[in-house]
Predict the 3D structure of the following.
Amino acid sequence: MNIIFQGARLINPVQNLDMHGSIKVSETGMIDTIALGTETIPPGSKDRVIDMNNKVIASGLFDMHCHFREPGQEYKETLETGSRAAVAGGFTGVAVMPNTKPVIDSPLGAAFIKHNARDLPVDIEIIAAMTEGSKGEKLSPYGKFCSYGIKAISDDGTAVQNSRMMRLVFEYAASFDMMVIQHCEDTALSSGGIMNEGSCSALLGLKGIPEVAEIITLAKDIHLMEYLQKHKLNPPIASPKYHVAHISTKGALDLVRQAKANGMQVTCEVTPHHFTLTEQDLYEAEDKGNYIMKPPLCSIENRDSILEALTDGTIDAIACDHAPHARHEKECPPDQAAFGIIGLETSVGLTLSELVHTGKITLYRAIELLSSNPRKIMGLPPVLFEPGYPANFTLIDPEETWTYTEDLIQSKSRNTPFLGRTMKGRAVGIYHKGVLHGLE
């Protein structure tokens, strides 16, 4: 059945588009007609008409940092349940990190993900491991990854600590035009840490993770990149592309600003929990396990620096770092809790509530951060609102006020500090792969 989305606000930053309009999608899932302005699309006898009432049709949202736990930890999440959470959150695509069991460090692991993701309602891109087993000792086979369409590598959950090995990562990745995604953490400083090092950690008697652990690793990597670009390799190769995962400190943001000013291919992402919460929230919480993550919830000063960087363009993307864990891994003493929280279902709500409705950024900028920029960083084709192109939409009601309750959770896990939180703005559906989800 053809579907006409009538009277929407169309936002697609790739096309510099933000205006009122309507879109007709054919039963094959392709865009048939676009009418801009107040003009409507006349329906046929077999067309379904959905009155959007000025709700938003955005280019399909893409989260470039997720953990779906399959293979090996299916008790926490699977590709199928993770995809359900993505749909509920308004995402038409995600990129999954390689720290599964076993780690996705070989073509066999990549083939497993590709095979099991082929019929899911969202696109799943694979981020493969930088090093075998993510142990930081031996490079993974980047060349073989290319044949599976893999465009990025990461040892997320840890960082390559050895500078010589990191140089090899840059050189090898650049030769295949692959992006390096770094979890910036100096483990010599952070080992055993539970939360941000400061007055709150001292009062709770929990070992702290100093913010400089993130800054030192990033600074080292940037200096390596500068050296490799200055001293042209023989044979010459492309400059390495580098992306900072879940950035959380002012010092790291300043390094990214300077790297960009120097013309380096450096980008970064931030999570909704890092621009929403601080170490004070963990200090005051009763269920402290759901406030334990890496990097840890930062100080108020660092959170304010994140908000500034979202406003001035230093931060390129919002990615939720969806990290499911079973109840027993969170409902325990803080120093035994697993790191991370689920985030796909609250990402849009927190972004609109904390950033758009507070006037820090525009809705257009939010869609850039959640959709077009992550796709560009990952080297994926842009979503276009043009006749003849596949319909790939996220449907958003920016004015809906809703409360996140456990019965709404589609993920297999429940580890979130946002249960009971009321937000303004919500993804109410997606249209992708010829199927409408939501707005039924």
User: Anything to note?
Assistant: The longest strand covers residues 393-403. The CA atoms of residues 172 and 269 lie 23 Å apart.
